[in-house]
Amino acid sequence: MLKNICLSFIPLFVAVDAIGLLPLFVSLTDGLRPREKDRIIVQSIVTASGLAMGFILIGKAVFQVLGITIGDFMIAGGVILFGIAITDLINPAQRRRASSNEVGVVPLGTPMIVGPAVLTTCLVIIPEYGLVPTMISMLLNLVLAGLLLKVSTRLVAVLGDAGTKALSKIISLLLAAIAVMLIRRGLEQFLARPR
Known about the structure:
Blueprint: H1 2-16, H2 18-28, H3 34-66, H4 70-90, H5 104-113, H6 116-129, H7 131-150, H8 152-192
């Protein structure tokens, strides 16, 4: 079981991309007191955990009942991620309001921490590594993401203001590319469906 936890941890670690979240988190929480930042971190991890665990347990059944395919889900998630990436790239001066009570839920908890990439990865690895190892590795990834967000200010301070802005732009560009990839894969699945 330990081997399966380790093997399922790696693809989920890549999908969660906790390191890539740091510039976004710092941008969203700029100017907030440490206590408010901690509240947002807890809110985002609780949201991400609830969504991930719920999806792992009943996601496939819900998809079947609603007639939603993985391809449909990938397209919808890709469109949302692309919108976030384009906003960050084109209009960086227009920051999202970090003081809102929802910032930990959207966009941090979902779709940034647990979004289409993570949920799709879960569906793919459950048959290979098992339900329990997937759940454990998902929770470990979320704990790691929370710890990285907690020390984000220090990590970003090492990079400096210019380094953080550059990293943020690169991450936004990568996010846009991941969004396009999700849309493309979703369309490929949609087009490959028997008529």
